[in-house]
Design goal:
alpha/beta; Rossmann fold; eight-stranded mixed beta sheet; 13 helices; 8 strands
Length: 304
């Protein structure tokens, strides 16, 4: 089952760009205002299944890739092939592929980090930017892994992800247990399936990650220090693009970041919305509220 089977107004195709092949879901009419949706970890383009038809029906041209390392897209072997420069360039290359100069970029989780960086690294390609579950935060003053160790201790999950092969094998040993644990509360161990995802939807994730494993996805985390080292120019950098952050008040990731610092990154119009009781997987957990917020934001963004 692919996303195009679920979202009947969409089509699935492979886009060869930036040295990789990306499986992309496309919906809406070409020439309409362009939106690029970027998923997080461990997700897929499929994670936007509740948003794609709504956004296309509202008159937008929607592009949604399985990002590199995921699903039907390329999974390069080298860890450094997953740095923030490659990830943001993949999204921008989608604009070139459809002949668009600018787009609104919307990301969730790691995808939010990518779109916030895209707004800083490729400002001329970004009409507006929205992050779900991960707010815009300024460049760290010190190396990320050192900061995590001091703040959260050696057992912090992102530190455990740093060693190639270890977390990969643990997560792949029982993909269903891994995915249930992630969706139930971020590495919660084996847990009941949350009520916001159906068995068929869950089985789609299990089948995809059972086929691909988790190494490509985990390699994103293994570039945190490299991303920091390679972006000194982002110290104090700001975006003037209209920006939106949507968070859930019950998101367990919340304590690891500080949305109060958003204005250090966003110099243009900024909107912050909180969904009471929502967890981390916000666009899947609370799709109607997320769709309402996104459509209101997009209406306020003057399209070219």
């Amino acid at each position: 089952m692919c996303l195009a089977d679920v979202v009947h107004t969409s089509a699935e195709r492979i886009v060869e760009t930036n040295g990789v092949a990306l499986r992309v879901i496309e919906a809406g009419e070409r020439g309409a205002p362009l939106l690029v949706l970027a998923h997080g970890f461990p997700e897929l383009a499929y994670s936007w299944r509740h948003q794609i038809p709504v956004l296309a029906a509202a008159g937008y041209h929607v592009l949604v890739p399985d990002q590199r390392g995921y699903g039907g897209s390329s999974r390069p072997d080298a860890v450094e092939d997953y740095d923030i420069h490659a990830l943001s360039a993949d999204l921008v290359a989608l604009l070139d592929e459809v002949g668009a100069q600018r787009a609104v970029f919307i990301g969730h989780d790691w995808g939010a980090m990518v779109v916030w960086h895209t707004a800083l690294l490729h400002p001329d390609r970004v009409r507006a930017v929205a992050g779900l579950s991960v707010p815009p935060i300024p460049r760290a003053r010190s190396r990320p892994t050192e900061r995590w160790r001091e703040k959260f201790g050696d057992d912090f999950y992102m530190l455990r992800f740093q060693e190639p092969g270890l977390a990969d094998a643990e997560m792949a040993a029982d993909v269903a247990v891994t995915m249930r644990g992630m969706f139930a509360g971020l590495l919660a161990g084996d847990a009941p399936l949350p009520d916001w995802i159906s068995r068929d939807e869950f089985d789609h994730y299990v089948a995809e990650f059972g086929r691909t494993g988790f190494t490509g996805a985990l390699n994103w985390y293994r570039n945190y220090d490299r991303n920091w080292e390679s972006t000194p120019q982002l110290a104090g950098a700001q975006t003037t693009a209209p920006a939106l952050f949507v968070g859930g008040t019950a998101d367990p990731v919340g304590p690891t970041m500080n949305p109060a610092r958003a204005r250090e990154v966003v110099a243009g119009p900024y909107t912050e919305e909180w969904i009471d009781g929502a967890g981390h997987w916000i666009q899947q957990e609370r799709p109607e509220e997320v769709n309402r917020i996104l459509l209101a934001f997009l209406r306020d963004v003057e399209q070219p």
